[in-house]
Amino acid sequence: MTIELTELSAQHTSDAAARRARSRHWAEFRLKAYGIIAISLAAAALVILASTIVVRTVGTVYEYYISIDVELDLRERDLARINDPDPRIRADLRSVIRDGLRGTVEGDLGRAERRQLFALTSGDAGFELGDLVKADRQLLGETLRFRALLDDEVQLYLKGKIGELHDAGSFGTVTPRKIEGSDEIELGLSPLALAEGRAMLQEARAAAAKLERAEASRQAAAVAQTEADIAEATDASQEEKKRLEDLLSRFTTARDAANARADALLRKATDRSAYFRLTSGDPSIILRLNGGWLKVTALSQERLAGIELDPLDSLDPPDEGDWQALLFDRPESERNISDRQLVWLENLERSGTLDRAFNWRILSQSDSSNAELAGIWGALVGSFWTMMVTFLIAFPVGVLAAIYLEEFAPKNRVTDLIEVNINNLAAVPSIVFGLLGLLLFVSGLKFNVFGMEIMIGGFVPRSSPMAGGMVLALMTLPTIIIAARASIRAVPPSIRDAALAIGASKLQTATHHVLPLAMPGIMTGTIIGMAQALGETAPLLMVGMNSFIQEPPASPLEPGNVLPTLIYQWNNHSERLFDDKTAAAISILLIFLVAMNALAVLLRKRFERRW
Amino acid sequence: MLPFVVLAIMVIAIIAFQLCRSKAVASAGGTLALLHSRPSYHGVYSLLWVLIIGLGVFIALDLIGFAIVDSLMRGELDNLLASTGETLRQIEKDLRISDAIKIVRGGLASSEGPIRLELADYFAGLERWRIGVVAVGSLAAAGGAFYVTYQQVAVGFRARNRSERILRSILWTAAAIAVLTTIGIVLSLIGETMHFFFTQIDGRFDAFFFGTTWSPLSGVHSGVMDPTKVGAIPLFAGTLMITMIAMLVAVPIGLFAAIYLSDFASASARAWAKPMLEVLAGVPTVVYGFFAAITVAPFIRDFGEAVGLSVASESALAAGIVMGIMIIPFISSLSDDVINAVPQSLRDGSYGLGATKAETIRKVILPAALPGIVSAVLLGMSRAIGETMIVVMAAGQGANLTWNPLEAVTTVTVQIVMLLTGDTDMATASGPAFTLGFTLFCVTLLLNVVALRIVRSYREMYD
Q1: Which of A196, A201, A203, B328 is the most buried (most CB within 10 A)?
Q2: B62, B66, B64, B24: which is closest to B45 by C-alpha?
Q3: Looking only at Cα atoms, what is the longest distance across chain B?
Q4: How close A156 comes to chain B (CA, Å)?
Q5: Measured between beta carbons, which residues in chain A are less than 8 angstroms from residue B290?
Q6: Rounded to whole angstroms, how far apart are CA atoms B214 and B222?
């Protein structure tokens, strides 16, 4: 059978052919789109990851201080500590700091209020003042302007991480009046004043009514259930019936009461002068007038009642525009900073006693349980020691092993076994190396041989960089061996032949000729292996490098932690400032990793030879 | 004191090197060519032996000395206690001994007392003896090694061959450390696993492998665990669920990315996409853990709540997704390698028949690369199973047997970390922890071996 040429071309120009071609091209387009989507998703993940870390790191760039006047009239015990020549003895001058803080606020404070005031500064501020005085004893007896570090929650507030006071309608006029027999002050509101506050009032009222209705319907359900029970329990004992009746009456009363409260709330919405009491679960409304602050405790459409957080100078009606109403959306019960503290901070900020400074502390201090004090210095030192131990073990052993396997090893089953082993070791989960290190280096393997207990290993102190470094060395070894073998193999045989031909031994050939040429490649592989080790966490948890350690280790045998384990520990804290500090620690870790990888790339570009 | 002994041995080694070299030069009588080995090889030979013998004897004496001192101290403590009529538990005895050692070495003892001070005196005497014996013994051994090798220096002495043989065995030892590591892993894991199975749960293998309640540390009674509370099924199920979620994320994204990069992408797209994937691969797992705990888990919870689902704040989904992101570069780079390994002639043949790129990939390249891709997926799974930090920071801690990925589940690695970093008694907690570790080791090893086997048996040979 023959096909006419026109018929053949018709097969390729028909509608069906066009449809076929379209669907084939569509399939092509689809596959390509999947690829682009896949890469975009990976890129998006990277971008989100990076921005999470960067945004939170930026939050730790500054730390906040308060300047207070402190009188260095010391008590007996503090003086003894200041005069102690031992530099490890620190004096806690917190009472001096507290006196200084008292000077920043007006009025008499009760116990609870004093506690709130003292909570503004970090717990360590007293020690820092003590260190300052200890370094310069001339200061004793003087009055000093001291910059005290603020508490972590206060710092978060000043960074705007908790919320902000915003205007709640500071228009119109207000007329203050003392309520007799109470420490509250009543304010008459002009129609424009506190617009936002009133809107909030309506919402709060509606929400409260809704809650009461929900409660009422719960009670109603209970009533219905109990009525059904009574109907069923016709032949129950007298006592049982009595119990059910009691229950029914209790539920009925509760239902009616809840309904009545809801009705009252809704009725009040129409009554312009009915007060609605704000609780700590409602957003806070604060008024600034006549040189003081009022916190609103009850609000109606026409008036409000409030208590003084900071005493007012007078009860004269302030001029329009001379008073301010502020709203804080997050209720007081949902934050660790009270309305009173907000007011104090607002005053302090106006008087210019709050300032911020670059956060060197996070680099220069070691771990602390106070979020505002914690730093990474101890972990950096720990990481340094750990990496030194890892390098000093893994690099020589890895290179020697690679030389042996490439240059000397006979091709037999032992060598094969070693090869398979190295490849498998590279794929063993890191936590298993941690288990090995825990047992072999830290606890020791106990054997019972002929009744005598023999212990192998167990010579390394727990939590020490030595233990961590040895575990990481075992982990890094396969990486280094594999990289070193590859670059030794890349040295051409002609080099070896030439060396052997002029009488060098095999060992001389390997050490004098092959190794120097392979060194750049080996170094590249080693740096990449060390970068992996620097970011490794799980095996170090096993040997106890996640302990809480406030002093940087002075030697590899002292307890320490490393950056990744510090990140893990900080992530477990509940203080919110620790989240940001964790991100900052991650940024520093990533900077080291990027630098190491850049060095590896540079080495490869600069020294790699192609034969 | 003892570090100085090590230093002295090194000094002896250097002196030995110099002396043997000069003796070799002298014995050649001015004609160095007469020597079998160059003078420095005579020196190196002596140096190596001095170091090996000196340091070897040093370490051996040190360890033996420790053991002897320890047993003598215990005997002395028993004597002291017998004289005062006190009886102490083993752990209290250990504390007394370590305090006595700390008093002598200038550390901070937990407390002081007549017994501790007497013991410290006794220890100080023993310690003087131990240091003396170790120092004298190891220095004598080093000197002896020097003496013997110095006598051997002669014109015809094959110093080079001999010292190279020593160096070669040093190289061999380095290579053997890798094997020793594996043996160490297996030995240490097996020892504790046996202890767990035969002592702690009394041979009830089924209780571990088929039980559904995991709470090993509740109900420990004098070292024996309650066999109804050591069931690892919830852990295996949790690990499997998180691994599956991770693979559902990583395999499509990694594979499509690899296909796109190898066959569609322009050179410039490759130039930024590949480093981007490498960066993703270089991020430490603890950072992924932070990301999962801080960003992904709250997002999933809020999203779930917005559409009316109840999501645990440590849901398996969050940990799984982030673990998937971590494995994307792993899958994509391995798949990229195998796709690129398919010879160009196959592509050209397919194009020559009129196939489009997509058809070529689907019908020619993927079948040819399939064994490699399957092994990449298996290796990715093995990494996901062994991954620790993401799940420790973002997955749950309580054992929970469920099919719902929105609930919190726990994994094998999380439980190992929980058992060994908590405030629990190491002797009790290490049994279940090491058993889980051994299971983990076996499963990942099996996956790796299978992955390599698949590549080796099903690979098409083209050239």
Answers
A1: B328
A2: B24
A3: 100
A4: 17
A5: 53, 567, 571, 582-583, 586
A6: 19
**Residue in A36, A427, A506 closest to B382 by CB:** A427
State whether B437 and A425 contact (CB < 8 Å): no
3 state DSSP class of A171: coil
Smallest Cα–Cα separation from A425: which of A488, A484, A480, A467? A480
Tell me: the pLDDT tens digits for B184-233?
888 888 888 988 888 888 778 888 889 888 888 877 776 678 878 888 99
Residues in B touching A54 (Cβ below 8 Å): none
Q: Is A126 exposed, middle or buried (0-12, 13-18, 19+ CB in 10 A)?
A: buried
List of chain B residues whose C-beta atoms are within 8 Å of the C-beta of residue A591:
none
Distance CA A175, CA A317 (A): 5
Adjacent-strand bridge partners of A299? A276, A304
pLDDT tens figures, B393-431: 998 888 888 888 888 899 999 999 999 887 777 778 888
How many angstroms separate the CA atoms of B321 and B445, rounded? 24
Length of chain B: 463
User: What residues does A454 pair with on adjacent strands?
Assistant: A447
Quote the strand ranges of A416-558, DSSP E.
445-449, 452-456
The two structure tokens encoding residue A123: 């717990």
What is residue A453's predicted lDDT score, i.e. its pLDDT?
63
C-alpha distances out from residue A601 to A232, A516, A528, A535, Å: 84, 19, 10, 18
> Cα–Cα distances in Å, from A472 out to A282, A385, A443?
53, 12, 17
For residue B207, count other CB atoms closer than 10 A to its CB. 20
What are the pLDDT digits (tens) for B130-166?
A: 888 989 999 999 999 999 999 988 888 888 889 989 9
Q: Which residue of chain A comes nearest to B292, CA vs CA?
A: A49
Nearest CB neighbour to A538, from listed B168, B273, B389: B389
Which helix (H) or strand (E) segment holds residue A288: the answer is strand A284-289
CA distance B277 to chain A (A): 8
Q: Which residues of A touch B188 (CB under 8 A)?
A: 435-436, 439-440, 445
**What are the CA-CA distances from residue A97 to residues A105, A148, A340, A352 (Å)?**
13, 8, 19, 18
Instruction: Answer whether residue A429 shows pLDDT above 60.
Output: yes
B13's CB contacts (< 8 A; 6+ apart) are: B46, B47, B50, B51, B54, B142
Q: What is the mean pLDDT of residues A242-251?
A: 87
Of A28, A481, A589, the CB nearest to B284: A589
What is the rounded distance in angstroms from the CA atom of residue B382 to the CA atom of residue B369? 20
